[in-house]
Amino acid sequence: MQNLTELSFSFKYILILIVTMIIALILTPLMILISHKIGAVDKPNARRINAKPMPSAGGVAIVVAFSSITLFVLPRIVGLANHHLVEATYFRYILPFVLGGGIVALTGFIDDIVELGAKTKLLGQVAGACVIWFFTNSHIENFKIPFGGPNLIFPEWLSFFATIFWILAITNAVNLIDGLDGLAGGVSIISLTTMGLVAYFFLETPNVYLPITIFVLVAAIAGFFPYNFPSAVIYMGDTGALFLGFMIAVLSLQGLKNATAVAVLTPMLILGVPITDTLVAVVRRKLNGGSIAEADRMHLHHRLLSLGLTQHAAVLVIYGIASIFSFIALILNVSSRWGGIFLLVFSLIGLDILIEMVGVWGENRTPLLNLIEYVGNSAYRQEVRQNRKVRRKQKLRDKRRK
């Protein structure tokens, strides 16, 4: 029989992915019992989808599976410290990511039990982001203006704020979409898988550690996923959602080291669903005169449910949208400049049509659909013109009265 140490790296890595998945698969049922004992239970309310109390610390299984494998197993087999593309051992590379992610996961875990305030949760996220800034080189340091523009080098203070902002934005974007069974987990698997492919095939500065780490995280989520897919028996909670958002943010940062337009757009496209849902929520809440932190039931998954879709169907629809975003991100990396521009423009148009059709902007906010109807429907065009005439006449009468 062949000695385990003599096996190829590829074979050993596949074994590691399987073991990672099994660890999460075994730990998740234990977290169902532990969640009930420690009070990490998601109780039904006006904003929740669940009709009964649900254990909500399932993300611990993902965190433990990923952290244990990357800290104690992978460093023993990677052995690339002297490789010309690697600056440090894998352990030194991954330790800050696990420490920063651990701080964020701990913040989420406490929130799952006692429900922390927004500022306290944000403080935990900032602490984790600062670990990444001070102990890794995953920074946003520059940006190349497209179409032959200059390369803008950020001063250190701006690089710091840009990096921290990116981490916080993506972390909370992923957390916000965790509103249906299996939604955050499935979207994260799709996004991370695409990110791993981009990291392996398309990064200008190759990083052999990055895809290795990404697919271990995918395996950890996959082990938890069967318990969370509709109908779920446990939620990942803020423990898992914040950890996944944080890890996706910091891993994507390594692709932004040389921030060309494609390098910036690729992770934004890969994370299209959570980013779009968050940006639309901010704009919608400002248009409604409320606080951007004010919760509502107008997110994409809420709107799909209001259209009559089941949880299962709504989740599959969003998986489909996330897959389209990911496919566009892959195509963008091999397309010409003008091909990429047309791809992005038509993608944005299609995205806005979808958002308006399901009513995510809010009631009666459908400018693009109105424009399409104005161009293609003569009766509607006449009605709009007539209404404009009436409004102009009314304005003239109002002026005369003054």
UniProtKB/TrEMBL annotation:
Pfam families listed in its UniProt record: Glycos_transf_4 (PF00953)
Top-rank lineage group of the source organism: Bacteria
Topology of this chain in the membrane: Multi-pass membrane protein
Residues bound to Mg(2+): N175, D238
Cofactor: Mg(2+)
This protein's GO CC annotations: plasma membrane
Membrane-spanning intervals of the chain: 13-35, 56-78, 90-110, 122-140, 152-171, 183-202, 208-225, 232-253, 259-283, 304-332, 338-361
Example of a GO MF term: phosphotransferase activity, for other substituted phosphate groups
Keyword flag Transmembrane helix: yes
Keyword Glycosyltransferase among record annotations: no
GO terms under biological process: cell wall macromolecule biosynthetic process; cell wall organization; lipopolysaccharide biosynthetic process
Keywords of this entry: Cell membrane, Magnesium, Membrane, Metal-binding, Transferase, Transmembrane, Transmembrane helix
Location relative to the cell: Cell membrane
InterPro entries cross-referenced by the UniProt entry: Glycosyl_transferase_4, PNAcMuramoyl-5peptid_Trfase_CS
Cited PANTHER family: PHOSPHO-N-ACETYLMURAMOYL-PENTAPEPTIDE-TRANSFERASE, UNDECAPRENYL-PHOSPHATE ALPHA-N-ACETYLGLUCOSAMINYL 1-PHOSPHATE TRANSFERASE
Record protein name field: Undecaprenyl-phosphate alpha-N-acetylglucosaminyl 1-phosphate transferase
Phylogenetic placement of the source organism: Bacteria, Bacillati, Bacillota, Bacilli, Lactobacillales
Gene name as annotated: ysfC
